[in-house]
Amino acid sequence: MNDHEFETEYGSAITNNVEYELLTKAAIANGFLQPEKPLVGFINIEGVRKTTADLKAAFPSHFSHHFAVKANGMTPVLSLLRECGILAETASPGELQQALKAGFTGKDIVFDEPAKTEYVIREVISLGAALHIDNFEEMERVRAIMAEQNDYTGEIGYRINPQVGSGKIKAMSTAGAHSKFGVPLEDEGNREQIIQDYLAHPWMKTVHTHVGSQGCPFDLIAQGLNKVVALAKEVNERAGEQRIESIDIGGGLRVNFYSDKVTPTFQQYADFLKENVPDLFTGEFRIKTEFGRSMMAKNGSILARVEYAKNSGGRHIATTHAGSQIAARTTFMPESWPLRLSAYTPEGDFKNGECVEQDVAGPCCFAGDVVAHQRKMPKLESGDCIMLHDTGAYYFSNPFYYNSLPTAAVYGYTINDGQVEFVQYRRQQTVEEMMAIIG
Ligand SMILES: *Cc1c(COP(=O)(O)O)cnc(C)c1O
User: CA nearest 304: which of 213, 384, 232, 375?
Assistant: First the structure.
């Protein structure tokens, strides 16, 4: 699929327009869009509750679900997820602190950083969080630290790269032959070395893999998971007892960025896994998941003012305040990360008129700062608003300080009887705060 889909489907791609219009009108009425605040983000609180409920309902109770904090590390979001019964996946000292601040304790957290310092390994172990070892060198470090430990109750294990191949988006693929993640299972001698390490260290109780994110086909994920399950069974068989108690199967469920429809659903994924990786469902192992994008993408949106509308060489261009500072992946890799947009009048009325082809550009000073190229949609005018949909994952958590633009405010919202209620999740960064970061 490519951008072309949007050209013919503007109306049908925006089926929740009543809700989006209410949200836009309420945001304008609340003064969230001002000349000095031309960009704002939203999290759909009820949406998050529904998504997490769907996730939990799709899998049996021996599954636990660790949200990938990198997808959206805002404290109120993490707290909301925690209240919904979700746990945390972290991969840096900062993400670890974000999870702790949101109320997660060590036993709720798994830690996946590829470049763990000795310092952070000690921190993770002292918290009792689960630790996934990326490579044999790291194993030496962990072994030395564990030799001084006697009260660690968490779970340690290898992160395995099953080397089953890459998905559609190279940058999102983690299980190719040369991936930077985990211990490559098929390289000569590795499988036996891994098994020997499990047999020699009774504190190695888990095994982890994450086959890939957006763009990774189900079949590839199933192949990777089956290899890891087979490894875990072999370890237990050779140990003569259940040494590996849990398997962490990672995240990577793709998101539909082309309409409001949630597809694939968690239920479809669970059904697929049940059919194709049945060992996950027997209860022999506790199973952990690490979804990020599929939990939050469709529960977030971004609203920006159109500052100017102009024409260049016959092409309409809307110059807006939503660009690389908040949508870096979309502007740098537009084919891989397209977004649905919808348009509103200055009063917040949904614009549904005749569609014309236009570039929707951001405020940054480089030519690629365009969130939609030649998108067919109602012609944008200065003063209009533009909404970027499905931006709840990997947008608010990934600011880009190009042109020293500040990070935008984000509000959580609920809609009751047509009334939108907001809670501020974060305010817009001040210029001083931005300057403190740039230095
Ligand atoms: C990024 C990441 C995830 C989450 O991936 P999604 O595609 O957002 O579901 C899970 N586990 C690990 C180890 C990751 O790096």
Answer: 384
